[in-house]
Amino acid sequence: MTNVPTIIADENMPALELFSGLGEVRTVPGRPLPRAALTGAQVLLVRSVTRVDEALLAGTSVRFVGSATIGTDHVDLDYLARAGIRFAHAPGCNAMAVAEYVLQAVLAWALDNGRALQRLRVGLVGLGNVGRSVAGLLEAVGCTVVASDPPQVEAGAQTAVPLGTLEQVLACDVISLHVPLTTAGPHPTHHLLDAARLAALTPAQLLINTCRGPVIDNRALLARLEAGQGPVTVLDVWEQEPQVPPALLAAVWRGSPHIAGYSVEGKVRGTWMLYRALGQWLGVDASRAMPQQAPVRTWEAPVASMADLLALLRTAYRPEEDHRLLREAMGLPPEGGSRETWVPLTDVTRGTNFDQLRKTYRVRHETAGLRVTGAVAPVWQTVLSRLGVVVSQ
Ligand SMILES: NC(=O)C1=CN([C@@H]2O[C@H](COP(=O)(O)OP(=O)(O)OC[C@H]3O[C@@H](n4cnc5c(N)ncnc54)[C@H](O)[C@@H]3O)[C@@H](O)[C@H]2O)C=CC1
Ligand SMILES: O=C(O)C(=O)[C@H](O)COP(=O)(O)O
């Protein structure tokens, strides 16, 4: 390509200054992305909220699409291949952010319910970048982890985490979902947790979904939760985003607006990976380092107990704050209010509120780089090391 390309980018993408040497960047809203904005553009950079398909791209001059996300279910990859449009995404970019979100949920649930981590069996559905990061942290705090991942079994993959069946995973104390959303192929994940599988789960279990909403049949889940028979549930993702059914939100232990991966580092890494991929595609230098943004942080107290570890993690991120804000945005009162106090919002308002929460999401850093100066009990040393914490006593 000889001319300077025009790059259309989602306005919620950080660190776009990386692209200043590669083309002229124009930002646009991602949901909905105005098709007219693509006029004359060669490059489109999106996040997960933009459906990228023939309806968006046919007749445009876009030749490169990048998604600063791990998931690709919003992109019609077959169409891009047929149309000869290059695609890049950001595998693993925010895996640690999601793993920290899951670790906090497990620690808080275990503390609340008097469960010893060393006796907890954790089942992961999907053992890719996120599943492996989650496994690394949970094994380090003493949990026994098993995963179900049929594509890896069929590929004969050697994994550090033992692979089992989905049924074995769903029988664990904690179940955490980390699969892509797929509707075709030998192992589709749409409604993988359907009514029958959900019916086998009990209130003694913790179910966490940070992958994609439609992996769980949300109506069936709500029916189980309203009957008081479902598992304690954490949902970061919802079947009809940006819609969040108030009844389902009211029934889960914790809900959040699809932000499990929203660390500053995870988002910036996603942009940086696209910058590298675009530079390679254009055949130009793209050797700028990933912008480093985490400030110096210090934890001066000891890390002796599970509660201490949770308190340390909470310096970076307080999940119940996301839960509170999401309830408010969907018209629910603070925890405990009756159904009569719910504010009846329209779908349009709820959708706008959901996207607004994500757009204005606060600065949240991953734990890596945190300096601990208090005494650390041997039992927590491995997890702190895997979190990238620097212990200096
Ligand atoms: N809530 C959030 O903010 C985020 C959500 N995600 C979601 O998490 C998903 C997983 O992310 P990664 O682990 O990085 O992806 P990955 O592609 O590295 O791993 C996915 C794993 O799932 C396995 N898998 C596929 N179908 C399966 C099935 N039917 N049963 C069990 N395993 C199956 C694959 O073999 C692979 O090992 C992404 O596709 C994305 O949708 C990712 C990052 C942030
Ligand atoms: O990486 C993924 O996959 C995700 O789910 C993203 O973290 C979601 O963030 P947005 O792309 O919707 O901003």
From TrEMBL:
Major location category of this protein? cytoplasm
The pathway noted for it is: Cofactor biosynthesis; pyridoxine 5'-phosphate biosynthesis; pyridoxine 5'-phosphate from D-erythrose 4-phosphate: step 2/5
Entry's Gene3D superfamilies?
3.30.1370.170, NAD(P)-binding Rossmann-like Domain
* Binding residue positions for NAD(+): D149, D236, G261
Instruction: Indicate the segments forming the D-isomer specific 2-hydroxyacid dehydrogenase NAD-binding domain, all copies.
Output: 113-248
Q: What class of enzyme is it?
A: oxidoreductase
Could you name the domain of life of the organism this protein comes from? Bacteria
Keyword annotations from UniProtKB, A to Z: Cytoplasm, NAD, Oxidoreductase, Pyridoxine biosynthesis
List of catalytic residues: R212, E241, H258 (proton donor)
The record's subunit annotation is: Homodimer.
Q: Which family does it belong to?
A: Belongs to the D-isomer specific 2-hydroxyacid dehydrogenase family. PdxB subfamily.
**What is this protein's record name?**
Erythronate-4-phosphate dehydrogenase
